Amino acid sequence: MNYRSDIDGVRALAVLMVIVFHSHLALPGGYVGVDVFFVLSGYLITTLILKDLEKGKFSLIEFWERRARRLMPALIVMVLVTLAAAWFILLPKDYLALAKAAIAQSVFAANIFFWRNSGYFDGASDEKALLHTWSLAVEEQFYMVVPVALLLVYRYTSGSRTALLRRLVLLAGGASLALSIFSVSKYPAAAFFLLPSRAWELLLGSAIAVFPTAALIQKRSMREILGAAGLLLIALPCFLYTPGTPFPGYAALPPCLGTALLLIANARVKDDENYTTAAGTLLSSKPLVFVGQISYSLYLWHWPVFVFATYWKLGTLSVVDRLGLIALSVILGILSWKYIETPFRTRKIAGSRKQILTFAAVGMAASLVMALGLFYKKGVPSRYPDEVMEVYYKAYERFSVDNNQPADIAADRIRKIGDPTPGKPVSLVIWGDSHARSSLPAFDDFCRKRGLAGRSITYSATAPLVNYWTREPNGLNERTVEWAAAVLDYVRAHQVQNVVLACKWERDTLASPRAVLRKALVDTINALHAEGAAVWVLMQVPSHKMDVPKLVVRHMLSGADTAPYQQTMEAYKAANELFYELKSSPDGRNAVFLDPSPYFQNPAAGNYEISRQGIPLYIDEHHLTIEAAHELLGALLEKEWHSASVARKDPPP
Predict the structure, then answer these.
(1) Nearest to 531 by CA among 503, 560, 500, 493
(2) Are 450 and 650 in contact (CB under 8 A)?
């Protein structure tokens, strides 16, 4: 097909949006650059395949050879270098996770891997050095399906193939868009990572290839309007969206439609030499075209650079740091484009089909073998002293994950704690998110000592409040209201004596106006009290500015000062002002507020401890280890339970 410099310009916009977003300098919605890439890929691939099919010379093996030549060399080198560099940077748990991601990437399933491992405890996204390969996996899977479908249409149909193709593209694209809209609220991780809910973006590009859109819009003024509108639709989400915006679904429509409009507006119209719009002229400028040409390599290398730079950085990166990382990414992108991408694409290296396919196979096998070795060695903990690893692994002992759906609650398919005697009345329910779950060792032990039967009802990133919800990637979101209603039904049906509300309250303090959160908490307390339950509100344990096990290990290895990253008493008091106010307010009279912070205090330093005798108290920034829950929360319960007036329903110990 004829080269279009404006498409390289669009590529440049897309990759720059993503990089600026990842640098946290600006563009909170810059992640939509990936969606721009999807539309471009669908358009280019479909156009190329249809041209070959029309000429009767399309070959699947030749198509995949071209894809391998274009994509595999730089990708293979990036993966191998990333795995090698991680030896000197990542701790065992994170190195093991990287190895698993590399294994998935080597079989074109990175998006499936990150979907399956996108849970609340699966590590911060900015510590996953191959996370960005999910989008490549989506495209690779698209390349496996669409060429075969187009070939079948041309081989086994006759007559108006074009009309059939258009119907198929519209049908498949519409179904994928509907699935994306449906899934984004109920199954957000699947909607984000998987091909079925992303295919419509690539198929939008395919639609431009199979419909005569450019020929239908020949009026220059209309094309100028379309070009300007396209740029606007791509740019606005970069500023208006945030990582919390439900995505893709409806939110992906503006950047995708904007890309489509740019493709249409700047397409050549017959023999018109003056067909380029103002938007096309801007996109065809030499700086943008150059960035577009290196965009693939730039996209590949920028993310591992940012991940490794931030992994051991104590504190946030400065603006100068981030600008430096962008510059380093550009340098690596240029080198990769010049010395890896271009020689393979122009056949100066691996000129024959056999050679490039052999290179791709050997390269993928090498990354797979290397990753399997790291997986087998469990991240190679022998790289660090034994005493460091003993502390490190101690920090990651925790209860397994329980996400209780409303149906599980109704059927009593929830975790039992305390006295396991069948048929014993439920004396206590602890209800909340992952913070409730991490406190279970203390409540389980407490109930066992007193012969009490208890239950745990938890769902990650979901507050235990009635008629209230916030949008979280791993939470129940809109279904929180249904979930809370199921809990109230359970408390009523089982005549539960005590209910403990436990949550990462600071998340909801930030997500909602204080008045909204206060009302929801008071309404929940009163609703449970009306059912005859004594209500306990477990305030949040102190949270810190950095992953605690990593911080403790850094201290052990290099003597790094941990104090700047520990929460201060002043900061905790400010963050929990609502709970201290309710504790002394008539609105909070139907609950007892349990404050765990005194058990973590280090009065001499004015902050809260992250370790005791060198052993971390947390598995990350804010979830307790099993041992810490037993020791610290257990002491809190022992002191507060029987001194509270609502404990009157508790049988004597």
Answers:
(1) 493
(2) yes
How far, CA to CA in Å, does 590 sit from each of 34, 502, 517, 527, 573? 50, 16, 17, 10, 22
Residue 435, Cβ neighbours under 10 Å: how many?
Answer: 24
How far are the Cα atoms of 147, 209, 343, 350, 360 from residue 65, in angstroms, in the given order? 13, 22, 15, 11, 10
482, 406 in Cβ contact below 8 A? yes
Contact (CB, 8 A) for 280 and 227? yes
User: For residue 274, which amino acid is it?
Assistant: N
Q: Residue 144 CB: number of other CB atoms within 10 A?
A: 14
**What confidence tens digit (pLDDT) does each residue in 267-280 have?**
876 655 566 789 99
In degrees, rounded to 5, the angle at the alpha carbon of residue 105 between the alpha carbons of residues 102 and 111 is 120
Buried b (16+ CB within 10 A) or exposed e, 57-70: ebeeeebbbbbbbe
Predicted model pTM = 0.86
CB 592 within 8 A of CB 528: no
Helix (H) or strand (E) segment spanning residue 455: strand 453-458
Is residue 615 within 8 A of residue 395, CB to CB? The reply is yes
Closest CA to 474 of 150, 38, 159, 124: 124
Burial class of residue 286, CB neighbours in 10 A (0-12, 13-18, 19+): exposed
The CA–CA distances, whole Å, from 244 to 34, 299, 525, 581, 639 equal 17, 23, 28, 29, 40
364-387 burial code (b ≥16 CB/10 A, e <16): beebbebbeebbeeebbbeeeeee
> How confident is residue 615, by pLDDT bands cut at 50, 70 and 90?
confident
Q: Where are the alpha helices (DSSP H) in 266-318?
A: 278-283, 286-293, 295-311
Q: Is 229 left (phi over 0), alpha (psi -120 to 50) or beta?
A: alpha
In the structure encoding, which two tokens stand for residue 497, read together? 């004596």
Arithmetic mean of pLDDT, 508-523 = 89
| Rounded Cα distance, 333 and 310, in Å | 19
Q: Residue type at 641?
A: W
- pLDDT (0 to 100) of residue 213: 72
When computed from its CA atoms, the radius of gyration of the chain, rounded to whole angstroms, is 28
- Listing DSSP states for 113-165 in one string gives HHHHT-STTS--GGG-TTTTHHHHHHHHHHHHHHHHHHHHHHHH--S-HHHHH
pLDDT of 420 > 90? The answer is no
What's the CA angle centered on 69, arms 56 and 14, to 5 degrees?
A: 100
- Cα–Cα nearest to 60, from 45, 41, 39, 79: 45
